[in-house]
């Protein structure tokens, strides 16, 4: 080693030693000898490994090979002092030119002290510069000694512009400076404080800063300045102010809300707030409410259900905010049905719910009544179908009774007065009487009640049923009434016409599950021959009752079967398929017709045509009792009768009766043949006796066409149904005789219309 290096080696603060390739210490300075607790003489010549902890050598053997290969190495070693204590040192080893190794040992205890000071300063600056708040350190005169970057961002000034300045004069508005001086004096006296103060930025804008200020002490405990942390709370202040405004607004809404409302603690069930509407509706005072829990306004049997619901909400199962099927108890003990809407929110630091209550007791009662009415309607529709079946049976049975009665009349006429068989004939006629009474009962059942046709204003009927329709349609369907000209009168049963409207409206409602518009319009329409023929009506004026909806509409298949009994597109629990068939029956029974037009997706229009009301004559009396001595030869006549009857046996017996009474009879088996016979024999035909219901062409339609040729031709209608059931156009020259008829009833009817 050179002289200069030797001097450095000897005076170095760090321990230094030189070892040869055999790891023997050939030189060492005093610093190293002190580090290992020995004299320099004790160190020289000793193996270096004798001073190192054995465990270190097992983990890190001497670095000779590494130094030979790389020229240097750094290793941590624990040196053992004579008293057994260990000194940790960082050993830097370098190969010298002569091949020996120079080792420099730095006591890590001394290095740690220096590093700690540097680390402390670094940590302070790291924290200060990354703090999401302005940091200011000032002296006793409030001059800035240090500001962090965030303070510069808040104020818009650079660090150079802030440090050394009295920040109160630079950043505070004039009204804040005096207060800042007072606060500084309190801090110099050792006070800590937090306050909000308006700061002025470099560009003149203002922000609200929340300041936390503390005195700064030196090592002797004297106050040498202050430390302040500044947070921009402008947005928070605005949010709090907005929240306060919103809370005030909501409080006002809560107070003036017309529906009962309250807030309750979800943990204790206790009422926290209640509005005046709840106090008025439930009858409890505000003090009583606030001393109660929500369980106190529930019937005892509902308490467990309430607890289960609240518990589920605590577990996070919020469920729906709206609830039906709840019941509450008023102060007087009255139980009411309610619908509630509730939402979770924080109320003065508590987990709470706000509840809005709607008393639906009346609506529940109305819904129950509506269900009852629907059941009644369903029952009525079913009975209507049974009634129609009964009417059909009665019609066919009356035809049979007519044959029996006619045959018994002929038989009685041919028997001698003293014949013992007259008793048998009497029994037959009595059986016919009983059968006739039975069919009259069946016909009455088919109508379910005696019809009471009267002169009705159709629009007045619509207006009368409007309220019922509004309830049946519900809130999703808009009902609109359109009135045509005044004086739209028909001869019909008011209750049946109302039933027509209700059935059509309910069908329309079901076709509009998502809501829509239902229009009921009345008008006067004139049907010419072609239009009337299509509807199987006579040409003339009719009142049109039109019901149109904006529902789903019908396809061709559904339209073609719409009036069939029991046909429905609804589910088994939604409809019976009797609604439109019932409407059809009532309309036809009232002498009218019904049409239906519909397009899928574009709604449906149903139009009912009813004859305009005119003078009508009461039907002829029913057959009544028969007489055993009734003669077929009395009241001989010379008139020619056109007999139109599709039942062969009835036609044969009727011809026999009429011919025995002296009438000339022309037969026809249906309406078309009867019309041809009338056209061919019009000059000799004095009266027409016709059944009402016949294939091909019915009696009413046939008579309508005949009267286009001969308007004054007398007509006697016969049918197993009543005149009301068939809606016959009765007048002075048109009467009705129900089957089974007696000879007297039939001849009296013929005489009546011929003489008119």
Q: What would you say this structure looks like, in words?
A:
The protein has 756 residues and is an alpha+beta fold. The chain has five domains: 3-113, 2-Layer Sandwich (Beta-Lactamase); 131-232, PAS domain (Beta-Lactamase, 2-Layer Sandwich), CATH 3.30.450; 239-359, PAS domain (Beta-Lactamase); 454-611, Histidine kinase-like ATPase, C-terminal domain (Heat Shock Protein 90, 2-Layer Sandwich), CATH 3.30.565.10; 640-755, Response regulator (Rossmann fold), CATH 3.40.50. A hairpin with a 5-residue loop joins strand 21 (593-598) and strand 22 (604-611). The longest helix is centred in the middle third of the chain and has 54 residues, at 361-414.
Q: Helix content range of the residues, please?
A: 40-55%
Work out the radius of gyration: 57 Å
Full CATH superfamily name of the largest domain: Histidine kinase-like ATPase, C-terminal domain
Could you tell me the mean pLDDT?
A: 82
Q: How much of the sequence is in beta strands?
A: 25-35%
Instruction: Strand order, main sheet: write it out.
Output: 2-1-5-4-3
Overall structural class, as computed from helix and strand content, comes to: alpha+beta
Low-confidence stretches: 615-629
Q: How would a crystallographer describe the biggest sheet?
A: 5 strands, antiparallel
* Termini Cα gap: 165 Å
Instruction: Count the domains.
Output: 5
- Tell me how many strands there are: 27
Can you name the CATH architecture of the largest domain? 2-Layer Sandwich
- Figure out the total of helices: 26
What general form does the structure show?
A: elongated
**CATH topology description of the largest domain:** Heat Shock Protein 90
Output the CATH class name of the largest domain: Alpha Beta
